[in-house]
Amino acid sequence: MxxxxxHLGEVTGKIEQAARAAGRDPTGVTLVAVSKTHGADRVRELxxxxxxxxxxxxxxxxxxxxxxxxxxxxxxxxxxxxxLQTNKAREAVALFDVIQSVDREKxxxxxxxxxxxxxxxxxxxxxxxxxxxxxxxxxxxxxLDSFVAACRDTHKLPVVGLMCIPPVDEEPALHFALLAKMAxxxxxxxxxxxxxxxxETAVRLGATHVRVGSALFGQRHL
Length: 222
Ligand SMILES: *Cc1c(COP(=O)(O)O)cnc(C)c1O
Hints:
By secondary structure, the protein is α/β, with parallel strands linked by helices.
């Protein structure tokens, strides 16, 4: 068994355990394998053992790796988890199945336009800056109600959930609980939260999507 496959088994097992401990059905948790900085060969290690959902944070890097893999594995699904510049929106709509980082009005407008143009509608998550960090992307909690309404009603984006990246120096559980509560309030079924260090906590608090990189692929070198 390759190293990636071994790590995948461990992470999947922990997700299942955390879900059961919280009284949740483990199939309600989607593991997004974050392959940024790792080559197509590492992605392939996981594809061969059944993993089909991957996350990348840069459009250009994903364009270099994934079109060939998608041609080979028709059910591969790719999530964009990093900041998206409006001038890359067209490429993002073409390549990604899910865009988890909708974080401002201008991007929502551009994505709506590009989706109409391409006649392709990737599911969207709204990224929430739960820690209200000035340098971090995402909608502030106080602005979320109006932003969700604008995305859904004005721009007609297929909004399916919320995503957050908690501050590194704070207890992530507080942020996960807040995000889950906000999603419930808006009737959004999906909550993307939890990374290698805290995905079990996120699952206990209701994550439907966990984004795990280094626990699967090892340390990033770039
Ligand atoms: C890189 C990244 C991850 C994965 O981080 P790990 O700590 O390696 O699991 C998750 N989410 C986002 C938005 C990322 O950029």
